[in-house]
Request: fold
Amino acid sequence: MTPSQFISTCTADAIDQAAANLRAGSLVAFPTETVYGLGADATNASAVARIYEVKGRPQDHPLIVHIASMNDMEKWCEEIPAYAISLARDFWPGPMTLILKRSRLAQDFITGGQESVGLRVPNHVLALALLNAFSKIGGAGIAAPSANRFGQVSPTTAEAVQEEIGNYLQSQDQIMDGGASHVGVESTIIDCTHELPRILRPGAITEEMIMDSTGLSLLENVDDVIRVSGSLENHYSPKAKVILNSTAKPGQGFIALADIATPEGVIRLAAPRDIDEYARLLYSALRLGDSQGISEIAVIAPIGEGLAVAIRDRLLRASRGR
Ligand code: TXA
Ligand code: MG
Reply:
């Protein structure tokens, strides 16, 4: 059993306590609208080092710094382009991470030694309450990757966090329960260090929304030296083998939109009615397959634009195994 604290009733007192624990160097897993994050004080090297230990993540992979509002951007970055301000105004709090030229506050242990830093204002009442409480006691930002072991499926519930990393947490660490994440896939990551914005990871903030907000076209997403661990080919993988877009065979798990019938002998893990619900259910459906000991999960990916792009991106990576 795990010695960490599972906070199912997040009262104002509980949130203040969690913020104080963070300031003192403990880890707090918290809900966001995308997926659950594993938080540490982003200015505390040893607290951040524990994130890497708990996740089993390589040291050179940078972390996103979560802030309470766009007013806190300037602490963490410099030379913010006008289009990034426009994006922040339009989509924060929300499922979007901006990559900007770092300030001195963003040290190598946050950026993986890169000259840029990832920033996000999440849109979840508990996350915002925690960030505000943390800010009140002098905290500048909360570093938080998705609260899963490296390479695994991101958790979208507090129970999934507990399953993933509960055994690696300590007695002063906490897991805050804020229900199931509404979006269900990780934030859109937008590189704002060039003249034009560039999507590094698709999410709920779509290409079209970015072009509308900024009035700019986007840079093509070419592979370069930027390290986005989520862009590793073998990411977002459940234990089961994910088989994309082929007919499901008896004994396999099956995930597809509700209007696609379940083939004979196949174990239906999710039947989302639309793309939004697909994103919301996807990770818990993959976890459900694992918990039932299913070794192969057949998935029919959604077609179309918007959030479907992000779902296909994650499914493609999941299908490449780890
Ligand atoms: O929705 C999300 O973004 C969630 C919630 C908790 O906020 N967080 C999340 O964090 O997905 P993580 O660490 O699992 O994925 C963040 C991705 C990583 O692939 C990392 O490499 C990339 O963001 N990243 C962070 N800082 C970066 C930087 N300075 N330059 C390029 N990529 C960066
Ligand atoms: Mg992750």
Remarks:
- The first strand starts at residue 5 and ends at 7.
- Residues 197 and 218 are 5 Å apart (CA to CA).
- The chain has two domains: 3-214, 241-319.
